[in-house]
Amino acid sequence: MLQRVLIANRGEIAVRIIRACKQLGIETVAVYSLADKDSLHVHIADEAVCIGGNAASASYLNMENIISAAVNTGAEAIHPGFGFLSENSTFAKLCEDVGIIFIGPDASVIEKMGDKAMAKKLMIEAEVPVVPGSEGEVSLEEGKQVLAEIGCPLLIKASAGGGGRGMRIVHHESEFEKAYYAAKQEAKAAFTNDGVYIEKLITNPRHIEVQILADRYGNVLHLGERDCSIQRRNQKVIEEAPSSLPDTMRNAMYEAAVKAARHVNYVNAGTIEFVVDEHGFYFIEMNTRIQVEHPVTEMITGIDIVREQLRIAGGKHLKHEQSDITFNGHAIEVRINAEDPKHNFRPNPGLIEMLHVPQGLGIRFDSGIYTDYEIPPFYDSMIGKVIAHGYSRLDAIRKMRSILEELVIEGIPTNQSFLTMILMHPDFVKGDFDTGFIAANLEGLLTYET
Ligand code: ADP
Ligand code: ADP
Ligand code: MG
After folding, report:
1. Residue 346 a catalytic site member
2. What SS3 state is found at 109?
3. What is the pTM for the complete model shown?
4. Which residue owns the Cα nearest ligand 1 atom 2?
5. pLDDT tens digits for range 4-38
6. Domains, the chain, ranges and CATH?
């Protein structure tokens, strides 16, 4: 088993990983930027190393400083969390080169699957259904050929995309060229890589994804699916497990996800993402890391996914067989953001004057905040996640509503009331929604009192 792990991340996921390490008796090394010196992850780790200035580029993306911190503190492995360097194959390779275990798949697998255009090619090889579109990245001329073949509406997507960024919808042929260059420019600015590919726009889809675990010995398991269709600007806001898909489709998706993971010799935890419409399901991408929404799967399976990541990285075999995995009840997660929904969801960091979190059976709060904590303005606005586990979907919804009613985060605006409005919406309660739900209902969802 691993002895000492460095966590190359911040916020709630760093706290989450440090706790999992402690429960396994693994020593922890936190890293932090100047702005994060008072962060919870710094306080609870066994040791903490400052890796640079406030900007992520100076600290959490500073590969040399992170590797030096690991070497100097004798950490034998690095857990990258999500975001930051988690899907950076150069970083994973650097770890391999200096003999540090990167807690994730091999660098070569990240490279293949992190390039979304290339990943789709591999999935076609593996006979996993993909969204129709271009074969890999396209030039303007090639893009126009694809446009002629599949028609509108279509999506131009960044190969290096993530977090819902780098995507442009084209509704009419005449918009294509402008959208092509706009997507390229946005991709270049956000990911320093301007490669784009094309997909048919699946109308009114649901986003359903399958959680995978794989060890070094060829064993691959799935832990069921999550429905992450409640999104704003292609970024998830509320996630739940299980989905409401019929069993035949659900089982076919499990099979496709396991096949996908096997095809690339996947190791560690990963997620295969699909969009689903009335005709079928289509692969969109693989996330080669732990995901923000992993807790809903943990709640219904009773499996600690971060613990499994650490075990797998330490060379252990998967502890479970597929037939051991059972699903119990229903879990919902909401992402709490330091933002003001009424002002176009403007990020709004600041001082947390008071924090009160309700407790109880099936309630979980994953966060890095505490009373008197000052949220720095330099990073993502997600400050925590509330997870509710109930006997049924309705039970989980009711539990989540009551948690959000009691939860107090004073000092900064958050999306707490906005989330409640979603949980109260009759279509959400009925399960009648797709990825366009928030956009279609935005006006009503913003009518809460402040
Ligand atoms: P990211 O890397 O930013 O997560 P994804 O490819 O996973 O990008 O897409 C993010 C979201 O965008 C999806 O969850 C879905 O809502 C929407 N989306 C992506 N591709 C399509 C598509 N071909 N048709 C319809 N919606 C899509
Ligand atoms: P997932 O597919 O897991 O939902 P996303 O594609 O939404 O993940 O990307 C992860 C998001 O989390 C990104 O928007 C990223 O900016 C953000 N992020 C990265 N690291 C952290 C962190 N430590 N705390 C909060 N948010 C983070
Ligand atoms: Mg995605």
Report:
1. no
2. helix
3. 0.97
4. 162
5. 999 999 999 999 999 999 999 999 999 999 999 99
6. 4-103 (3.40.50.20), 132-200 (3.30.1490.20)
